[in-house]
Amino acid sequence: MAVSVRINAAGGPEALRLEAVEPQVPGPGQVWLEQAAIGVNPLDAGQRKGAVAIPFPSGLGLEGAGRVVAVGPGVLNVAVGDRVGYATGPLGAYASARLFPAERLVKLPDALGFDEAAAVLFKGITAQYLLKTTYAVVPGTKVLIYGAGGALGQLMCAWARHLGALVMGVVSKPESVERARVAGCDAVFVFDPATLPAQVLEATQGHKADVVYDPMGRVTLNASLDCLRPRGLLVSFGATSGLPAPIEVGTLNAKGSLFLTRPSLAAHTATAAEYQERAQDVLQAVASGIITPHIWRRYALADVAVAHADLEQGRSQGAIILTP
Fold it and tell me: Cβ(157)–Cβ(184) under 8 Å?
């Protein structure tokens, strides 16, 4: 008997319920996957709270790793026994076993453990498209990355440093400064909207940032805009502090003909081919030591509510993993 986390309506961590589910026979293009590790991401919490709309009742989770135990008709890219991971929907990763579309599975190298795979695929693909597609970071690019001491931020800082950028990190508390420096930051700032633009101006010798990667949303929006050089790009890709307020088009002009985008992982992995290409780039970056998954804590699947509470209260210092 497998178990799965279900949520019937938006709410706090206590809304997450563990239910027994019967093993299912995979249909065309599907596999039945027994999971060894499940990744927890801020997007999961946003969906649980209702800040990011999903239909209820629902499963939750977009990232996992395990072994294929059954394949449906027409599946050719994976076989029974293969070690695989994934980092996109459909929702339902919070489970000991599940059906999953075969074309969205990524074969794992033997050197990468299940826990590490579940800690790096979703966040790694996010870092990959942000640094290589949303804004193509090259040697000399001046980047500002919020959450530099967190699971995604550590990956982004390390990868941006490898690409030759001047990496400036923003953290929420002083105890995260050293972790962000170790991750690859040239400069680290504890967030204060009143002082951040001046700190960025000084760190860049008057240039300001070429690109700001902001997953925070509401509380950081104005400071982020003020950290950008003329014609710089604000990448608003999350809403940890709430959805950003609307911006008047004239504001972008007044602050230096700025650019603004709000990208998503789904739009950058819409086809199986693009998804697999980005995933392979992440796996290669891990194998080359460019990025390293940092697991902060492992929780039993039954303790998913505790994991969500720790994530939302800012306790985590790296990736959170659920183990069935």
Answer: yes
